[in-house]
Amino acid sequence: MRVIVFICLLALMAGCLLPGCTKEAVLDVYGQAVEVLGNVGLTAGPALQGERKFGEDKYTGTYHANYVNFTGEEGLFGGTMLEKRESEHVTVSGAIRCEDGQGKLIWSCGASEPVEVAAGEGDFSQTVYLSPGSNYFNFRAEDFTGSLELTIE
After folding, report:
1. What is the percent of the chain with per-residue pLDDT over 70, rounded to a whole number?
2. Do 108 and 146 sit in the same domain of this protein?
3. Which of 2, 39, 63, 143 lies in disulfide reach of 150, CB 3.0 to 4.6 Å?
């Protein structure tokens, strides 16, 4: 899938390099390509353990899931952007209810080490400042039985 997307984006960019294309047109296609490739980091709807509803963009929305002995990582919200969003920050809130195992919500920003937003058991609320580049909110679990309620706005 990633290879097909990459080939299509290369074809789009090559088309803009033809004589007569403006710098703005090339940058616009490049920005669209980066955004499309950034969506690859999100777990596809059918593969999710729960139900996700996007908000105004792929960085915001709600997610609810019940897990039984889940081990893995789900890319819930985020993407890649060249320029800042209209709002530089998001509020991440919700609850992790843990019956067994370990589960945590993490924020990955570019090449920086992932930041733990919430872990274990309990309610959480935190403001996260997004920067241009990649920003993803993932749920990482090991033998996790419990639930996750998440709202990002």
Report:
1. 69
2. yes
3. 63
- pLDDT digits over 126-149, tens only? 999 988 888 999 999 999 999 999
Same-domain check for residues 54 and 31: no
CA distance 100 to 120: 10
33 membership: H or E segment, kind and range? helix 23-38
Q: For the chain, how many residues are written?
A: 153
Count of CB atoms within 10 A of residue 111's CB? Answer: 7
How many helices (H) does the chain have, and how many strands (E)? 2, 6
Instruction: Look at phi and psi of residue 150 and say left if phi exceeds 0, alpha if psi is from -120 to 50, else beta.
Output: beta
The tokens of 24 are what?
């703005």
| Residues of the domain holding 21 | 2-38
Model pTM score: 0.75
Q: What backbone torsions phi and psi does residue 121 show, to the nearest 5 degrees?
A: -130, 135
Span 73-119, pLDDT tens digits: 999 999 887 666 566 899 999 999 999 999 999 999 876 899 999 99
